[in-house]
């Protein structure tokens, strides 16, 4: 009964910025962790950034210093601020959440970085 909805993707030139949002809705007691994954054509899906319930944050090496993950726990909303975007950041970005023993995925939002 939980739904994740991403927004904020689009087309941006290299060096630009985007902010992705993920809103979780439904019957939610608490969210143990939330994260952003991405997948480009011909590649494996990779974890970009994650944050758990006590605020511990993980970033993939490829985005450290450029991306910032944050969470509005009161509204069950996850954000990914993406700065200094590179061509290799082009991918479909997916929001994910762990709620108790159950995992949930959003439908994805496309980020395309042009030269």
Q: What sequence of helices (H) and strands (E) makes up the elements?
A: EEEEEEEEEEE
Residues in helices, as a percent range: under 10%
- Over the alpha carbons, how many angstroms does the gyration radius reach? 14 Å
Shape: globular
The percent range for strand residues is over 45%
Structure annotation, total helices = 0
Mean pLDDT over the residues: 95
Structural class: mainly beta
Which segments are poorly predicted (pLDDT under 50) over 5 or more consecutive residues? Answer: none
Number of strands: 11
In this structure, how is the largest beta sheet organized? 7 strands, mixed
Q: Determine the N-to-C terminus distance.
A: 41 Å
Give an overview in words:
The protein is mainly β and 115 residues long. The chain is 0% helix and 58% strand. Strands 2, 4, 5, 6, 9, 10 and 11 form a seven-stranded mixed sheet that branches. A four-stranded antiparallel sheet has the order 1-3-8-7, with no helix packed on it. It is globular and about 45 Å long. It starts with a strand and ends with a strand. The mean pLDDT is 95.
């Amino acid at each position: 009964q939980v739904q994740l909805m991403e927004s904020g993707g689009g087309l941006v030139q290299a060096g630009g910025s985007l902010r992705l949002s993920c809103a979780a809705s439904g019957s939610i007691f608490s969210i143990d962790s939330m994260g952003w994954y991405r997948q480009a054509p011909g590649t494996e899906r990779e974890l970009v950034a994650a944050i758990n319930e006590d605020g511990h944050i993980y970033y993939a090496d490829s985005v450290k210093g450029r991306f910032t993950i944050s969470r509005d726990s009161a509204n069950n909303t996850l954000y990914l601020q993406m700065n200094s975007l590179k061509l290799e950041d082009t991918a479909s970005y997916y929001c994910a959440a762990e709620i108790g023993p159950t995992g949930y995925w959003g439908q994805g939002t496309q980020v395309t970085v042009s030269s």
